[in-house]
């Protein structure tokens, strides 16, 4: 068995049936091995797209997402989405081809310290140096990716190890899954005491808690503990428009449980402005570094730091009947999350479709579509989409604040769930990053619907410059009115539509769905600031 066959057959045994990739010299042995293993390669137009798609695959399925890139420029093209995956807590395995071990230090073609580059972006980054190290390295990487807190891992595979004989005729025996280490008993007792007696508790979860495969766990905890589990996955933190006016209610909580939610900028670094002055805080996290950070930032306000999987710990906690004050408080939390009363409503330009009207038209389509999946890219328009559109399964640009991945996410979602109606909303700026992946969608028969809100500018940056420097010092914001994004989709073999108003958009959505093709709808849009639903100061986070 060759090294390449060992890697691919092991992935197949782990349940991997799809790999996102862009071909290159150093990974050709792995491509060849995929044929015999029956693993599908989704061949993209840019390496970054492969990593974004692997990220979306893991978010949609809850499984390991796999991306495969070639050496040096290939792996470095995938770094930005690797950062996004780390912030989204997505378990992905990034495999990269590498120069041969036998040529180390000799100036080999595309020789590069890949591990040194990816280590800060991953839970684990390895480069085996012998054929005997291949299987243990892959096994360790996959285990790390799937262990709490989930995240990306990287395996750099030297070319000579891929073409070398391993001496194995069969795969090594699969490792036994490790039992989760139970949380500290005394800590569990204190957790129960704090949660069971709190009158106004708030539970904040990290991005993992937002995933569709976690829905049953969230609902079980909400029922058992009589409180809402609120996942946070936006760089706007408590000012995330999809959280309504939650930020205004947060200071009234008497207990805040951070269930795998890192204490960071999205929570004002734990300051009293965000979390209030009186609430006790519980941090449950598998990463001791996150518990140390919470202790350092909160001091005496940290009532408990408990290391472990937060969902396992909370599920194992002995719950008692909630205090009488709990149900009315939960109703207030739910009301705040639903609140869509804007405090910064702007008048749309005459004749232009406002972002709220656009999103409400898309939402009406989603409400009647079979098995809808919503993808929201970043930017100002992305915030409108996150506020006014919803679906049982949703992917957003995530904690990284990156923009431009929307089309990639949507394609992977459609491949993962072929019967789903996948709609992605993005601005005209973000559309420019990966519009050519519509070609991938056509080749893979992934009939997504991409809705582009076209306000002819980078609106987030436009608003920042207007606010900070004034209208006479705008630079680098305008986009061409001659750009016809829908025609690009048609030219690549998909379907393209233009819309000027809500009726035109509704018609285009129906035509796109009936076309059976990847479709792009170019919608003329009035550029407005992202909606704000609380009295909090608007975030300076542009993306």
From TrEMBL:
Gene3D superfamilies: 3.40.50.970, TPP-binding domain. Residues 377-523 form the Thiamine pyrophosphate enzyme TPP-binding domain. Residues 3-116 form the Thiamine pyrophosphate enzyme N-terminal TPP-binding domain. It holds the Pfam family TPP_enzyme_C. Keywords: Thiamine pyrophosphate. GO terms for biological process: isoleucine biosynthetic process; L-valine biosynthetic process. GO terms for cellular component: acetolactate synthase complex. GO terms for molecular function: acetolactate synthase activity; flavin adenine dinucleotide binding; thiamine pyrophosphate binding. Its cofactor is thiamine diphosphate. Belongs to the TPP enzyme family. This is Thiamine pyrophosphate enzyme, C-terminal TPP binding domain protein 2.
